[in-house]
Design a protein that fits this description.
By secondary structure, the chain is α/β, with parallel strands linked by helices. It contains 14 helices and 14 strands. Helices cover 39% and strands 17% of the residues.
């Protein structure tokens, strides 16, 4: 049995694959601790996994604005101290990072302690943390076809994003019944990622009557703090009642994706991986302010593989026509689903698990009693939610 310390908080796109990896390691008899952020989305998601061990690590996103930069430096210093404490006391055999601000301090400390480091980058344009820390890693997991300067190819493995066990496709009618939708009508889901997408929320509210008139049921996940918890009954041109649901967060992504005939979504790597697993056709609207425009790169590659249609955010005014063209074209939807099922044939999680077990020492060191160390002082170790 080995111990794995996994830094994966800050966004659903980092936390979800971290949970998937921990589930897989636990199934093989290993111990894990997941380091997450203090953000609300992390607290909401981890409540579903009482069998896993989570710890909150200090941290803040990088910014050049004076106050933000000061906060970044202060919090990353606290993260460095926290990381040194937990590595020294818990003695993990391998440290895994999924990028973002929860990863940086931990990976630097891991290198100082000479612990094996693995980094996973899900986006087709590697993020700042992965680019800066890649040289410290014994293993770098990148999307197929992606290269990164400064990293020897012998250390690179090309794999996709691990997906949680619960993300599996359900029968359409059963999923729609569970959510209270009419199986005789089309269902459109709108997803903005774990942070929500104001532009998509505004679009669907502005075009709700038009969608309902065409007999399209709607489920919009607005994002925490961006409204939600609303159910509306609208009238279609056929005279049928059409349901529209707004919720701030979705605790059952597999059911929602299985119920949806079509998804309108941002183009985060985590969302794309879940679309593939549930074989749900999509129209992707990349977030234009994403770092290094990585969502555009994700979306274009996915479109080229036959998994989705890509629409630039500047053309949201015409999105309702695109939605109607796709959602009522059953031949095109079947073609998308077949392409998505083809993309899901490679199970990335198994490949990563096999590789990580090879990185772990054959006789792992353990801390007394197999417990987490006592809490370090004040700022560096807040309470776990």
């Amino acid at each position: 049995m080995s111990r794995f310390l996994i830094a994966c908080g800050g966004t659903g796109g980092h936390l979800s694959p971290g949970i998937a990896l921990a589930e897989g390691l636990h199934a093989r008899g290993h111990e894990t601790t997941l380091l997450i952020s203090h953000k609300q989305v992390d607290a909401r998601l981890i409540g579903k996994y009482p069998q896993l061990r989570f710890e909150r690590i200090p941290g803040a996103p990088f910014t050049l604005r004076p106050l933000g930069l000061l906060r970044f430096c202060w919090r990353q210093t606290a993260a460095f101290c926290f990381s040194a404490h937990i590595i020294r006391a818990w003695r993990p055999d391998v440290i895994v990072g999924f990028g973002g601000f929860t990863t940086a301090g931990l990976i630097v400390v891991a290198a100082l302690f000479r612990r094996p480091v693995a980094l996973h980058e899900a986006n087709r344009v590697p993020g700042r943390a992965i680019r800066l820390l890649g040289g410290l890693a014994q293993r770098l997991y990148l999307p197929p076809g992606v290269r990164m300067a400064g990293v020897r190819m012998a250390r690179v493995r090309h794999v996709g994003l691990p997906v949680r066990n619960e993300i599996v496709r359900l029968p359409r009618e059963a999923a729609q019944a569970r959510l209270g939708f009419d199986p005789s009508q089309k269902v459109l889901a709108i997803l903005g990622g774990s942070q929500g997408a104001s532009a998509l929320n505004h679009w669907v509210r502005g075009h709700l009557d038009r969608l309902a008139a065409e007999g399209i049921q709607v489920c919009c996940v607005t994002g925490l703090g961006k409204g939600g918890d609303e159910v509306r009954a609208l009238r279609a041109k056929s005279g049928q009642t059409v349901k529209a649901v707004f919720m701030p967060f979705c605790d059952d992504v597999a059911t929602l994706l299985s119920a949806a005939d079509l998804v309108v979504s941002r183009a985060g790597a985590g969302t794309i991986a879940e679309l593939i697993r549930c074989a749900t056709p999509a129209i992707l609207v990349p977030f234009p302010q994403a770092a290094d425009n990585h969502q555009w790169a994700n979306a274009r590659f996915f479109e080229q593989q036959g998994g989705a249609v890509v629409v630039d955010q500047h053309y949201l005014a015409d999105l309702d026509r695109e939605v109607c063209d796709v959602i009522f074209n059953d031949w095109l939807l079947r073609k998308f689903r077949a392409n998505l099922q083809r993309m899901d044939r490679t199970r990335s999680l198994d490949l990563i698990l096999n590789d990580l077990e090879g990185l772990a020492p054959s006789a792992p060191a353990t801390a007394a009693g197999g417990r987490l160390p006592p809490a370090p002082p004040a700022e560096s170790r807040p309470q776990t939610a």
